[in-house]
UniProtKB/TrEMBL annotation:
Its EC number is 2.7.7.64. CDD domains: UGGPase. It comes from Kalanchoe fedtschenkoi. Belongs to the USP family. GO terms for biological process: UDP-N-acetylglucosamine biosynthetic process. Its cofactor is Mg(2+); Mn(2+). Gene3D superfamilies: 2.160.10.30, Spore Coat Polysaccharide Biosynthesis Protein SpsA, Chain A. It catalyses: a monosaccharide 1-phosphate + UTP + H(+) = a UDP-monosaccharide + diphosphate. This is UTP-monosaccharide-1-phosphate uridylyltransferase.
Amino acid sequence: MLVEMGQSHLFRDWPDPGVDDQEKLAFFDQIKLLNESYPGGLASYIKTARELLEDSRLGKNPFDGFTPSVPTGEQLTFGDDSFINFEETGIKEARKAAFVLVAGGLGERLGYNGIKLALPRETTTGKCFLQHYIESILALQEASCGYVEVMCPRSSSGGCRTEIPLVIMTSDDTHARTLQVLKSNAYFGMASTQVILLKQEKVACLADNDARLALDPKNKYRIQTKPHGHGDVHALLYSSGLLKKWRDEGLRWVLFFQDTNGLLFNAVPAALGVSATKQYHVNSLAVPRKAKEAIGGITKLTHADGRTMVINVEYNQLDPLLRASGYSDGDVNCETGYSPFPGNINQLILELDSYIEELSKTGGSIKEFVNPKYKDASKSAFKSSTRLECMMQDYPKTLPPTARVGFTVMDTWLAYAPVKNNPEDAAKVPKGNPYHSATSGEMAVYRANSLILKKAGIHIDEPVKDVFNGQEVEVWPRVTWLPKWGLSFAEVKKKVGANCFVSQPSTLVINGRNIHLETLSLNGALIISSVDSAEVRVEGAIQNKGWTLEKVDYKDASFPEEIRIRGFRINKVEQLEATYDQPGSFTLKPQ
Ligand SMILES: O=c1ccn([C@@H]2O[C@H](COP(=O)(O)OP(=O)(O)O[C@H]3OC[C@@H](O)[C@H](O)[C@H]3O)[C@@H](O)[C@H]2O)c(=O)[nH]1
Ligand SMILES: [Mg+2]
């Protein structure tokens, strides 16, 4: 096959039989793996690569024949009646959902040495993204089962058996460390069988326009490989057999999400509610997008022949597409101060039946692209080897016109704060655009929680502006809570009274389910923990020196990397710590 596919250069320098035989056999083991892990095998990979490389060489526009325009979608406003209704519907549906986390990426832009899932989402509690995700899914599971028990009380005797599956797609770069974090933390409270790891394989690198495979510079008996992109998740899910198993178990939805968005679960219940209400086959979550922000734009594409689709146009392709379509300024903000195209946050909700139907046709393969960096304008040679890539959000590209494809826009403060950029690059982001750094990711958690409490009626001080690692951010009170404390806005409202106050320098950690803030006035730090069977009312004024933020320079190697990249550490000067580990009713009333 390799010879037929024009790959004889791979063997050209091989010594005679008897020399390096083990290495030669290992070469064929690798070929076998590359062949098996690609839909249609290596021959198909090479054939597609030739076509895409030729298109790239000719400078063909991948959107040739399509005209972009701004699509209309569902716009949600946090906290209004429709939002609250969507959240309630979403929580009911959650027990019919499976979650899929794509976490095979290296995070090259962030440059962190560990896996991104193990990074703290915020450093007040120090809980990592993975723990927060798992606790959020468990909270959804319990809340969703609560509805079942109310609807059919007989099932309550044996408790709710639903376990919402969590699939994590890993790669050789992340697999072992992801498994290790899960195992050493008892899967953060999930059953170990509830979490399924699927490892994506890398794909062969291409050395030239003829799609000759590139040899590993360090080993002439190995082919160089690189990641194929998060689009692999569809083929992996399909070949794993999980989708059909889920369908047989009565599941209806598959929710895809990415490694470092600390706000995502603020948006999940309502977004799922939109999918269920509108019966969307595909629902993409979006936020208002700043021009040139490194997030894809959701775009309506209309072909000359009348076909239309609503699809993500990746951030590096939006500007050229707009320029080629008569928008001479390209990717710019409109009068609202935002790009007219909603920004894709790559949280997709797919309806399971139609997903299986589509994958039965495609096997899960996703439209690929190639992005070679040429040596010069002749486009005859590459600076370094390239490979085919694919993106999970390109899934709708092959759907029939009858498919119900929609999107849901929410506020950025509520739904999106990824950690993708290292401090140096973040500080260079155009003014007014989000930093997407560890600093902004953590500050966004405090801001969102503060704003949610504020909307629920608590008086919260205005934030102060401060600069960490060269990035100016708003610093709100450091408020965090367990997902099961405030899974939805309705839930938060039930637990806070109108006469509460939290000052700007304060820290409030809510570590329990049934904690009611009745008349709390906080100026300092309060860490309150309780078991589920304890009901705690918090009343009165709490005043102490609290927890302060101290600046840390990202170049200061005396601090651990996860602290340096955010530019501050928390100095725990003084706090009131209250723990309720017995069932019963309690009141915390310091004065
Ligand atoms: O091969 C890969 C590459 C990436 N990934 C995962 O995919 C997720 C996204 O990766 P990146 O953070 O590199 O993605 P990007 O920032 O380039 O863009 C992505 O997020 C923002 C959206 O607006 C873009 O449309 C989307 O492509 C991460 O969770 C990463 O771990 C894989 O699982 N495998
Ligand atoms: Mg990337």
